[in-house]
Design a protein that fits this description.
heterodimer, A: alpha/beta, Rossmann fold, 2 domains, six-stranded mixed sheet, four-stranded antiparallel sheet, globular, B: mainly alpha, ABC transporter involved in vitamin B12 uptake, BtuC, two-stranded antiparallel sheet, two-stranded antiparallel ribbon
Chain lengths: ~270, ~325
């Protein structure tokens, strides 16, 4: 493992220590150590099957059959359910895009706020003035986010009618509704055209500028290298190295193990 | 449709159905017609209870006839064995059914939605067996006959719902309150949360939804209304026996929910009223009744695969699409 300096702060927002997850004897994640600094955009790259998505599933509580330590803001996440982790401010998207197809685009974004605005069941049932105000606030915020991701003209369309790239934008808008502290994006630009990828990068930068941290799992290395402050390279279930894009580009271990030493990373 | 229009539409439809309900006993005193009306209203509430858990939350429950039967037995036992009123019996029925629902939900939902289907079926079979075999309490296959008519006391004066007309109005009040309460629930955030879970449980979890708690809430709520419907039903037919758990009741409410449209409200109410009245209309000639009923159901499923709700949705979209086409061409 390379000894590249870690840019994460002393108390990183997300700290993963010795994460291990096996499937029938196959070590999908094999002692992973990573850190995501507060306020950063951190990328995670690595070949197919190296354990990136499995790690994300463990971090976000969707897979709880792991060993190791996962802390967000020094609070342990291990054993917590995915919904509890989400309500704690860690939101994620999925590699296979997921939206509520039979709801409109606007409803999709508003639905993302339901577990976060402190409205009680009773307030919702009798439609109190507090509830109606919260609904109006949620709608205003949802429209703002749809404008940010360029889907405002589609607000009234059914989500199922959107293109693949538009669904990616919609899912991004949805998880931003609750103003999360950390967002994990699983392959946000996979299968989308370069223009859309640039749009997504701009949105991430803009939201990051307002204080939300990102961990981005991606195969599109130029995208990661241009966008991220820190990059984690995974190989065979482990962190090969974590460093700045510049450090990653010049790290011989990365060139050797990840690209066979034939090219510069991110070119 | 704007929110104001939608609220006006809902109120108009509710008022129309209520007015029709009030008018029926004024137009006929025939106990046959009133019985058909009473059955239609009770089965509509019963089917709507299944709709909460199946149509909204996406959990196919075969326990509903179990909740309905448990509600019927508990209400009957509270009245006949404990000397309580039917109202106390119905409250007890609601609590017992809700507890049963949470119990089987908590056990089965740890595994999967498929496990819930199996466990829910087992619950109904177990309850049926209990009704048959626990003779000291349930009177076994003989059942508990002679259930008294419901009554309300005002001081010394007692008003008994002992005639078909009176029972019709009692059932109408029950249907209005139950359907009104269910409408409030399914059009609130609870309904939307259940729909989120039905459409994509994983996505719902990732957005902070407590999926298991909401599923259990849906099961408990639906069990309550199924039990209330079952309790009221047996006080009309004046007997409860193990046949209350018959698969026929599951078939009727499933047909209503599917023909109405999963997760719909008004289309399901309309389907409930039609499906329960239809076999009576088809009695002439009686020999062909079930064949005609079957053919109509098959045609309904073929022509309206997403139920009445889907058909209404399509018809609504057509004028909108035509309007857009005109705007584009101009």
């Amino acid at each position: 493992m390379s000894a590249v300096a870690n840019p994460a702060a002393v108390h990183p927002l997300l700290r993963v220590r010795n994460l291990r997850r096996s499937f029938a004897g196959v070590h999908a994640v094999d002692g992973l150590d990573i850190e995501v600094a507060a306020g950063s955009v951190t990328g995670m790259i690595g070949p197919n099957g190296c354990g990136k998505t499995t790690s994300v599933n463990c971090i976000t509580g969707f897979d709880r059959s792991f060993t190791g330590q996962v802390d967000m803001a020094q609070t342990p996440l291990a054993g917590r359910t995915p919904d509890a982790i989400a309500r704690g401010g860690l939101m994620r998207t999925f590699q296979a895009i997921r939206v509520f197809d039979t709801f409109t685009v606007l409803e999709n974004v508003k639905l993302s706020m339901q577990s976060f605005d402190g409205t009680t069941v009773w307030q919702s049932l009798v439609r109190t003035s507090w509830f109606r105000r919260k609904e109006e606030e949620a709608e205003a915020r949802a429209l703002e986010l749809l404008e940010l991701v360029g889907l405002l003209p589609k607000a009234g369309d059914m989500a199922g009618e959107l293109s693949y790239g538009q669904k990616k934008l919609l899912s991004l808008a949805g998880i931003l509704m609750s103003d999360p502290r950390l967002v994990i994006l699983d392959e946000p630009v996979a299968g989308v055209n370069p223009t859309r990828a640039m749009e997504i990068a701009e949105i991430i930068k803009s939201v990051n500028g307002r204080g939300t941290s990102f961990l981005i799992i991606e195969h599109n290395i130029p995208f990661v290298m241009r966008l991220c402050d820190s990059v984690i390279v995974m190989d065979r279930g482990k962190r090969l190295v974590q460093g700045t894009p510049e450090q990653i580009r010049n790290d011989p271990a990365v060139l050797e193990a990840y690209l066979g030493g034939a090219a510069n990373v991110g070119d | 449709m704007s929110r104001t229009n939608s609220a006006f539409g809902n109120l108009s439809l509710a008022a129309l159905l209520l007015a029709a309900g009030i008018a029926i006993p004024l137009l006929t005193q025939s106990s046959y017609f009133l019985t058909v009306g009473i059955t239609a209203m009770i089965f509509t509430v019963f089917a709507m209870s299944l709709n909460i858990v199946y149509g909204y939350a996406g959990l196919l429950s075969l326990a509903h006839v179990g909740f309905w039967g448990v509600g019927a037995y508990v209400a009957a036992l509270v009245v006949t064995r404990l000397g309580g009123s039917i109202w106390e019996g119905l409250i007890a029925a609601a609590f017992v059914a809700a507890a049963g629902g949470v119990l089987i939900g908590a056990a089965a939902l740890r595994l999967s939605n498929h496990a819930f289907v199996i466990v829910s079926l087992c619950f109904t079979l177990l309850m049926q067996m209990l009704a048959q075999e626990w003779i000291d309490v349930t009177n076994g296959p003989m059942g508990i006959p002679g259930l008294p008519a419901p009554s309300i006391g005002f001081g010394d004066a007692v008003f008994t719902f002992g005639t078909p007309t009176r029972f019709f109005y009692l059932t109408l009040a029950f249907a209005v309150v139950s359907l009104g309460a269910i409408w409030l629930v399914v059009t609130s955030r609870i309904g939307r949360t259940l729909q989120m879970i039905k459409h994509d449980e994983t996505l719902a979890r990732s957005l902070g939804v407590r999926v298991t708690i909401w599923k259990l809430t849906a099961i408990a709520l639906s069990a309550i209304f199924a039990a209330l419907a079952g309790g009221l039903y047996v006080f009309y037919v004046t007997i409860v026996d193990p046949l209350i758990f018959d698969v026929y009741y599951t078939q009727v409410i499933l047909v209503i929910v599917i023909i109405g449209g999963l997760g719909s409200f008004w289309p399901l109410v309309i389907a409930g009223l039609i499906i329960t009245v239809l076999p009576e209309i088809l009695r002439t000639p009686n020999e062909l009744r079930m064949i005609s009923y079957g053919v109509i159901l098959m045609l309904a499923v073929l022509l309206m695969p997403t139920g009445i709700a889907g058909l209404v949705g399509k018809l609504r979209k057509r004028p909108a699409a035509a309007k857009s086409a005109v705007e584009l061409s101009s």
